[in-house]
Amino acid sequence: MGSAPVRGSEGYAEAAAELIQRYDSLAFAEVHRPVLHLIPCVPCSAVDIGAGTGRDAAHLAAMGHRVVAVEPTDALRIPGMALHPSPLIEWVDDSLPDLAVLRARRQSFDLVMLTAVWAHLDAAQRCAAMPNLAAVLRIGGVMIMSIRHGPAPPTRRTFDVSAEETIELARAQGLAVTANLRTGSVQEANRRAGVTWTRLAFVRAQEP
Ligand SMILES: C[S@@+](CC[C@H](N)C(=O)[O-])C[C@H]1O[C@@H](n2cnc3c(N)ncnc32)[C@H](O)[C@@H]1O
Questions:
Q1: What values do phi and psi take at 2, rounded to 5?
Q2: Nearest protein Cα to ligand 1, atom 23
Q3: Tens digits of per-residue pLDDT, 30-58?
Q4: pLDDT digits (tens, 9 = 90+) for 57-102
Q5: In sequence order, which residues have a C-beta less than 8 Å from that of residue 90 and are 6 or more positions away?
Q6: Domain spanning 12-204: which superfamily?
Q7: 115 CB within 6 A, ligand 1
Q8: Is the dihedral angle over the CA atoms 4, 10, 13, 14 positive or is it negative?
Q9: CA of 135 to the centre of ligand 1 (A)
Q10: How far is the CA of 20 from the centre of ligand 1 (A)?
């Protein structure tokens, strides 16, 4: 018997065969269009937390960034390693809220990406996660998040999370909000179902 899924990742292993194809068919530039201007152009160190199949990690690596792709679901991480075998990507089995592996290594990054993950964490996990996200973001670095709103598959653990709560949690950790946008979905089925997204960006300007 396998171990229980990390809290927040329930339902992903079972759906992996379909999700691998779906996630990797999306273009980074489409998914991140509203915040593309915030992605550093000069090669830097990045971490993509809840990296899925590594679509975004692969794009960042192609831009010259060194990327740690954090993904707790074996059924996404292992195929993702095969799909995107870049020497600039390191895959790590780690998870929110603790980010125990990254924290133990004392790693920090210029760019932290958290795409379509935050709404899978409950309120206590979000409170516990934000200090760890702030800790892995270098001073002057940028964190870019997306938060899903609206209907979600019943097999996934999903919460209705506000931008305001997230901004307040981040502010308490010394992260200043630099973008707060509400957008539609790039996936047609989700658009039709009424899914919308909050896009947030933060800079770490000071010690928490
Ligand atoms: C909607 S998918 C998004 C994947 C990828 N970021 C993308 O945009 O294609 C959500 C991802 O979050 C991961 N996840 C869920 N709970 C997590 C947690 N507690 N810590 C880290 N990742 C988690 C899932 O395994 C899944 O890969």
A1: -75, 170
A2: 50
A3: 999 999 999 999 999 999 999 999 999 99
A4: 999 999 999 999 999 999 999 999 999 999 999 999 999 999 999 9
A5: 66, 67, 68, 69
A6: Vaccinia Virus protein VP39 (3.40.50.150)
A7: yes
A8: positive
A9: 20
A10: 12
